[in-house]
């Protein structure tokens, strides 16, 4: 029989990262492809103790259905942390909803705001799953140029003038995926000034903000917002456990009401048990000490990878030097196609994500994203050496 798929699926493709991870799964390939937290930093023993405590003391509720917007105590704890760590006062429970991962937030934002053909702005390059989420609702994804400090404000102003009805700007201002670039305070203030008085919403995706290895914390865009235009996405995936699938969206009350409706249509509610476990973890254990232990591990691995790149990469290859997060962005000479290079690297037992997947419009093929959080020092060094050898032997 003929299957009559929706036309919007014509714009949707499998995740490049997930396809590469399948290729590397269960093999002896060193994978720099995923944005995977290291199992070495999972607090397995503490989570086991907390989970048992929750089931004994609150099992009847923790194993039951719960409300769509999420556990009240957990939402309160998140808001308290946001105020304490990021200076975002005045938020109430009406400003937050728990999500089943930040990706669900991207899907909901696109569903709520985008009609077919509506323009949304993204950084160039940007998180590839955000491009997929926005295109799934038939949005026109328009790129904003970046430099070493993030979004170039003059290009944003030019695009805002060209597309005055654009719905939102999607940005990862801290340790951006895929580049690792961060906006300094000066650039964030310039961004907020550039959009002042417009109808352009800002989606601030913030999965890596707490993973800073160098320098001082920079205020969030949310903390600078006095017009109700910033929608903030946070997550426990990088600081507790990605398998919990617990994230949150903070937004004006009218937006949260729409999010709740979208969530009721999608999955009714977030996972009850993992919410209880996360809430108890925050209540009885030292979350900040746990994050510091993650920073120690990942900061060290970042340094190891940067040293290996310096030692082994041939002339003509450059890379970013992030102050936090999980990724570096490599740029090769123009004649090197990273997709073809990946084929050579797979033969040398190392994988990365080709850079073309992170571009929405003007695709550039001589970049790749590599992750430094997942593998140990020995594999980091050997993996970089193998990529360097593949580059030297490249003859496509």
Question: Would you mind describing this structure in some detail?
Answer:
It is built from 13 helices and 14 strands. It is α/β, with parallel strands linked by helices and 396 residues long. The mean pLDDT is 95. α7 links the parallel β6 and β7. The protein has an eight-stranded mixed β-sheet with strand order 2-9-8-7-6-3-4-5, sandwiched between helices. The chain has a four-stranded antiparallel β-sheet with strand order 10-11-14-13. A two-stranded parallel ribbon has the order 1-12. The chain is globular and about 60 Å long. Helix content is 42%, strand content 14%.
Could you write a compact summary of the structure shown?
By secondary structure, this protein is of the alpha/beta class. The protein has helices at residues 16-24, 44-62, 72-86, 102-113, 128-135, 153-162, 185-195, 221-224, 253-266, 272-284, 287-312, 338-347, 377-393, and strands at residues 30-31, 96-99, 119-124, 140-147, 150-151, 168-171, 201-205, 230-235, 247-250, 318-319, 327-331, 350-351, 353-354, 367-371. It is globular and about 60 Å long.
Topology:
Layout: H1 16-24, E1 30-31, H2 44-62, H3 72-86, E2 96-99, H4 102-113, E3 119-124, H5 128-135, E4 140-147, E5 150-151, H6 153-162, E6 168-171, H7 185-195, E7 201-205, H8 221-224, E8 230-235, E9 247-250, H9 253-266, H10 272-284, H11 287-312, E10 318-319, E11 327-331, H12 338-347, E12 350-351, E13 353-354, E14 367-371, H13 377-393
Parallel strand pairs: 1-12, 3-4, 3-6, 6-7, 7-8
Antiparallel strand pairs: 2-9, 4-5, 8-9, 10-11, 11-14, 13-14
Helix pairs in contact: 2-10, 4-5, 4-9, 11-13
């Amino acid at each position: 029989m003929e299957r009559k798929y929706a036309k919007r699926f014509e714009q949707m493709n499998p995740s490049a990262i997930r396809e590469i991870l399948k290729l590397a799964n269960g093999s002896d390939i060193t994978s720099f492809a995923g944005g995977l937290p290291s199992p070495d930093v999972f607090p397995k023993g503490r989570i086991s103790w907390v989970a048992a405590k929750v089931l004994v003391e609150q099992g009847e509720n923790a194993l039951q259905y719960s409300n769509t917007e999420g556990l009240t105590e957990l939402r309160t704890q998140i808001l308290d942390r946001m105020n304490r760590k990021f200076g975002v006062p005045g938020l109430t429970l009406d400003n937050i909803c728990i999500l089943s991962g930040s990706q669900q937030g991207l899907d909901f934002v696109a569903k709520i705001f985008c009609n077919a053909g509506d323009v949304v702005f993204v950084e160039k390059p940007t998180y590839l799953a955000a491009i997929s989420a926005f295109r799934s609702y038939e949005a026109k994804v328009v790129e904003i140029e970046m430099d070493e400090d993030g979004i170039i404000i003059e290009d944003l102003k030019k695009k805002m003038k060209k597309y005055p009805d654009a719905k939102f700007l999607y940005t990862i201002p801290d340790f951006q995926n895929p580049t690792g670039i961060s906006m300094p305070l000066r650039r964030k203030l310039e961004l907020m000034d550039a959009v002042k008085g417009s109808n352009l919403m800002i989606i601030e995706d913030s999965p890596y903000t707490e993973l800073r290895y160098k320098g001082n914390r920079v205020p969030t865009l949310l903390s600078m917002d006095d017009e109700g235009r910033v929608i903030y996405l946070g997550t426990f995936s990088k600081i507790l456990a990605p398998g919990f699938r617990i994230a949150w969206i903070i937004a004006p009350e009218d937006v949260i009401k729409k999010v709740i409706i979208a969530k009721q249509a999608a999955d009714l509610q977030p996972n009850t048990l993992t919410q209880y476990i996360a809430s108890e973890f925050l209540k009885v254990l030292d979350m900040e000490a746990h994050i510091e232990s993650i920073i120690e591990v990942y900061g060290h691995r970042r340094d190891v990878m940067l040293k290996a790149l310096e030692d082994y990469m041939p002339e003509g290859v450059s890379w970013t030097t992030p102050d936090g997060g999980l990724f570096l962005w490599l740029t090769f000479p123009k004649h090197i196609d990273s997709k073809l290079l990946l084929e050579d690297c797979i033969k040398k037992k190392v994988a990365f994500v080709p850079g073309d997947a992170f571009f929405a419009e003007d695709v550039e093929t001589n970049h790749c994203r590599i992750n430094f959080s997942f593998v140990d020092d020995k594999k980091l060094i050997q993996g970089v050496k193998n990529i360097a050898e593949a580059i030297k032997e490249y003859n496509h």
